[in-house]
Amino acid sequence: MSGNEERQQSEFNMAVSYLGRLNNLFYLCDEASMQLNINQWMHSLMAIFRELSTEMTDQEIKELNEAFKRINNDVQTYNQQQNKGNLSGVQPELYEAIHGIELKIRGVLKKSGLQMRMQQDARASLE
Per the confidence metrics, is the pTM higher than 0.70? Predict the structure, then answer.
């Protein structure tokens, strides 16, 4: 198949399972952030990033890759300190950096139409 030919499309798709995976991953992010589990929070966000990468522009992918790289050393340092028992809590800068990544990812989710719009009248969503 050459690069210009289109693939035959399946009559089946993975939309429901895809949304289920995203929902699960966002649940894990929420739980990890509330428990200050930095490692799980970061890995959950990285998994969401992979899932949503097909919905992102090249610029969004580049920005998020750079953001993950910038805080990777801080997360590794945090994990080392935690393993040694030398930790009194999560540094606010690290928490805010991870929080910022999550907000960017959630923005992609919304711009891509993967997040349901809020209805003024709940009955309208049943129609």
Answer: yes
